[in-house]
C-alpha cells in the first residue's frame, strides 16, 4: 500500500470532479504531487494540486483548494483537511490508514515498495568501464557500487535493466600496457629491467610476465616489437579483464555485458557505419572549429575537419570525428557505441563516469538524441573523488606509480558491506571522505553498523519475546492477525508513517537515478527505531515486549517485523547484508 500514490489518485479524482475541463489535460495533472509536509506538525500528507491548476483555470489557488477539500469531507480515511499558505492542502489521516500500511507490509513482504514506474522500459547502465590496465582502485570502487546499486534499484522499480562494462581496449594505453608486460616477461627470463616513466610499474604485471614465459618460452626475445606486440597485448588484456572481474566479484558485482571498444574499429566497423549514417542524415559536415577559450591545448589544430553537428542537439560546440592522421577521435567511438545501444533497443542510456570526465555529459546527450531521433535519452552520472583517510592522514594513490590503494585492499580491510554502504552514503556527485577507522567502528557514528544493528535488533526483540512469553505465537499468520488498533501512541504511528514512505522513496530514487536516497532513508528508519527502543528502557509501557499484555506485544511485534522487512529490502537493494545478529 503506497499511501502517497493512493492519495495522488484521490486528489486527481477530486480535481476532475470539481473541474471537469481538466480531465484531458494529463500533462498538467501529472505535475500534481502528494508528499509529506515540510513540517510534520502540519499533518501527514500535503499536495500542491491547487497551485498547479489555478492559473490554467483562471482561479485563485485557495479557491481551488477549497473546492478540492470539500471532496474529502466524507472520506473515511481522512481525519481533517486544512488549507495552508498560498494554497497547499494538508491532510491528517485516521490511524486506521497507518494500520493498513503495516498490514500491507506483512502481506507483501519483500515486495512492499516494489514499483512499476519503469513499466518495462529498457535501460542500459554502463558503469566502471575502467581502462583494462591494472586492478580496480578505490576511485573505481565508488562508480562500481553506485552503478550496481542503481541497476538493482531500477530493476526493483520495474525497468528492464542491462548492466554493461565498456572495455577501453583500442587506445594507446593498451600498447603501453603490453610494453610494460613485455618488460616483466624479460624480467621473468632473468633480466634486470628498468621501467621507464610512463609505463605501468605495478607488481600486478609480474605474474603476467611469468605467464608469458610459460606460453612463449624465450621465443619473443629476439623478435621486433611489431611481431610480439599483438600476442602480448592479447594475453595481457585477457589477464587484466580476469583481474578486473575478480576485483568486482569481491564487491558482489557482475556485469551481464562486456563490450569491447576494438569491435567498433576497422573496415566495416560500427564507427565507419555510424559516420556513413550521420552523413546520410546531414549531421556531419566539413568545417573549422573556433579555437577554445584560454590557453590552447597542445593538440589543437586549426584545420578543416569532419565535424558532428552537436550544437543542433544541445551541445556547446560541434565535435571533431576524424584526427589529422585519419584515425577516429574518441568521440567518434562514443557516438558509434551509443548508437549500438540504441539499436539494441535501449531507450534510457546511463553512463557512470569518473570526475575527470566532467565535460562529457552534453556531448553524449547530444549524440544519443541524434542517433535515436530523440527517442532515447542519455543520463551521464559522475562519481566524485574518494579521499581515503588512515589515522587522520590521507592515503596517497597513483595508478602509474604502482603505489595504489586497490578495491581489494579496501574490501579486505573493512568488508564488502561497509565499502558498499559508505560509497552510497553520499550523493555520487559530491566528494567522499572514506575513513577506515570510522567504518570499522561499532557505534552509532558508523552508518552501516547503525543500520545493520537495527536489523539485528529486530531479531533480538523476537528472541526476547520467545524467552519472556513462550506461549505467544509469533508466526507470520499470528502477526498478520494482530490487533493493530492497539498501536496508537505517537511514537508507534510515527514509525509506521516512516515505513509507509518506503514505496515513495523507491519510486523517487529510481526516477532520479539516486540510490543514495535509500541509504539515507534506511539510516533515518534505523534512528527512529533505535529511539523507540530507547524510550522503552525509560518507560516500560513503551517496550516492544510487555509480559502483562500479550495482545499489545503481538501488535508491537508486527511493527518490529515491518521494520525488519523494510530494512532487509533496502539493504538488499544496496547490496549490503542484513544480519540477524552482530558480534
UniProtKB/TrEMBL annotation:
**What InterPro entries does its record include?**
aa-tRNA-synth_I_CS, Arg-tRNA-ligase, Arg-tRNA-synth_N, Arg-tRNA-synth_N_sf, ArgRS_core, DALR_anticod-bd, Rossmann-like_a/b/a_fold, tRNAsynth_Ia_anticodon-bd
Q: Which organism is it from?
A: Pelagibacterium flavum
In this protein, which residues make up the domain named Arginyl tRNA synthetase N-terminal?
5-93
- Could you tell me what reaction this enzyme catalyses? tRNA(Arg) + L-arginine + ATP = L-arginyl-tRNA(Arg) + AMP + diphosphate
The subunit structure is:
Monomer.
Q: Where is this motif: 'HIGH' region?
A: 130-140
User: What protein is this chain from?
Assistant: Arginine--tRNA ligase
Q: Which UniProt keywords apply?
A: Aminoacyl-tRNA synthetase, ATP-binding, Cytoplasm, Ligase, Nucleotide-binding, Protein biosynthesis
Which SMART domains does its entry note? Arg_tRNA_synt_N, DALR_1
Q: What is its main location?
A: cytoplasm
CDD domains, A to Z: ArgRS_core (cd00671)
**UniProt record similarity statement:** Belongs to the class-I aminoacyl-tRNA synthetase family.
Q: Where is the DALR anticodon binding domain?
A: 451-582
Q: Name the enzyme's class.
A: ligase
What domain of life does the UniProt record list for this protein's source?
A: Bacteria
Q: Where in the cell is it found?
A: Cytoplasm
What would be one Pfam family of this protein? tRNA-synt_1d
Amino acid at each position: 500500500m503506497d499511501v502517497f500514490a493512493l492519495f495522488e489518485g484521490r486528489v486527481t479524482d477530486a480535481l476532475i470532479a470539481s473541474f471537469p475541463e481538466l480531465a484531458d489535460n494529463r500533462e498538467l495533472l501529472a505535475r500534481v504531487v502528494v508528499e509529506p509536509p515540510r513540517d510534520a506538525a502540519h499533518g501527514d500528507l500535503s499536495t500542491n494540486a491547487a497551485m498547479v491548476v489555478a492559473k490554467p483555470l483562471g482561479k485563485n489557488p485557495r479557491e481551488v483548494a477549497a473546492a478540492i477539500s470539500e471532496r474529502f469531507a466524507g472520506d473515511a480515511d481522512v481525519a481533517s483537511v486544512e488549507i495552508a499558505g498560498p494554497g497547499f492542502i494538508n491532510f491528517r489521516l485516521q490511524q486506521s490508514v497507518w494500520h493498513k500500511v503495516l498490514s500491507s507490509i506483512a502481506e507483501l513482504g519483500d515486495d512492499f515498495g516494489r514499483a512499476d514506474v519503469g513499466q518495462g522500459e529498457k535501460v542500459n547502465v554502463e558503469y566502471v568501464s575502467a581502462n583494462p590496465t591494472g586492478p580496480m582502485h578505490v576511485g573505481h570502487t565508488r562508480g562500481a557500487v553506485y552503478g550496481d546499486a542503481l541497476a538493482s534499484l531500477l530493476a526493483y522499480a520495474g525497468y528492464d535493466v542491462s548492466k554493461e562494462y565498456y572495455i577501453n581496449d583500442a587506445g594507446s594505453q593498451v600498447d603501453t600496457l603490453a610494453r610494460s608486460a613485455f618488460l616483466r616477461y624479460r624480467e621473468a627470463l632473468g633480466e634486470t629491467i628498468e621501467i621507464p616513466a610512463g609505463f605501468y610499474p605495478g607488481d600486478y604485471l609480474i605474474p603476467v610476465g611469468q605467464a608469458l614465459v610459460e606460453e612463449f618460452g624465450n621465443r619473443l626475445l629476439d623478435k621486433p616489437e611489431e611481431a610480439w606486440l599483438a600476442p602480448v597485448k592479447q594475453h595481457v588484456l585477457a589477464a587484466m579483464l580476469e583481474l578486473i572481474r575478480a576485483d568486482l566479484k569481491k564487491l558482489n558485482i557482475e556485469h551481464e555485458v562486456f563490450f569491447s571498444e576494438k569491435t567498433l574499429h576497422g573496415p566495416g566497423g560500427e564507427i565507419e557505419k555510424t559516420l556513413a549514417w550521420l552523413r546520410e542524415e546531414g549531421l556531419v559536415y566539413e568545417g573549422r572549429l573556433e579555437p577554445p577559450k584560454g590557453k590552447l591545448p597542445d593538440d589543437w589544430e586549426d584545420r578543416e575537419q569532419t565535424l558532428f553537428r552537436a550544437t543542433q542537439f544541445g551541445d556547446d560546440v560541434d565535435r571533431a570525428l576524424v584526427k589529422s592522421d585519419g584515425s577516429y577521435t574518441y568521440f567518434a567511438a562514443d557516438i558509434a557505441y551509443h548508437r549500438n545501444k540504441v539499436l539494441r533497443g535501449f531507450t534510457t542510456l546511463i553512463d557512470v563516469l569518473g570526475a575527470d570526465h566532467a565535460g562529457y555529459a552534453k556531448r553524449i546527450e547530444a549524440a544519443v538524441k541524434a542517433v535515436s531521433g530523440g527517442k532515447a535519452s542519455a543520463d551521464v552520472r559522475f562519481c566524485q573523488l574518494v579521499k581515503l583517510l588512515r589515522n587522520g592522514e590521507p592515503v596517497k594513490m597513483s595508478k602509474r606509480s604502482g603505489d595504489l590503494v586497490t578495491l581489494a585492499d579496501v574490501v579486505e580491510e573493512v568488508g564488502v558491506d561497509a565499502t558498499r554502504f559508505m560509497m552510497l552514503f553520499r550523493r555520487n556527485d559530491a566528494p567522499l571522505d572514506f575513513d577506515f577507522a570510522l567504518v570499522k567502528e561499532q557505534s552509532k557514528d558508523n552508518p552501516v553498523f547503525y543500520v545493520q544493528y537495527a536489523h539485528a535488533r529486530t531479531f533480538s526483540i523476537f528472541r526476547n519475546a520467545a524467552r519472556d512469553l513462550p506461549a505467544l505465537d509469533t508466526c507470520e499468520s499470528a502477526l498478520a492477525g494482530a490487533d493493530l488498533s492497539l498501536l496508537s501512541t505517537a511514537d508507534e504511528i510515527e514509525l509506521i508513517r516512516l515505513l509507509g514512505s518506503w514505496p515513495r522513496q523507491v519510486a523517487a530514487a529510481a526516477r532520479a537515478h539516486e540510490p543514495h536516497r535509500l541509504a539515507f532513508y534506511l539510516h533515518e528508519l534505523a534512528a527512529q527505531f533505535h529511539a523507540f527502543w530507547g524510550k522503552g528502557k525509560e518507560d516500560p509501557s513503551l517496550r516492544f515486549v510487555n509480559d502483562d499484555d500479550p495482545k499489545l506485544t503481538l501488535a508491537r511485534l508486527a511493527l518490529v517485523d515491518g521494520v525488519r522487512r523494510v530494512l532487509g529490502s533496502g539493504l538488499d537493494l544496496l547490496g549490503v547484508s542484513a544480519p540477524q545478529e552482530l558480534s
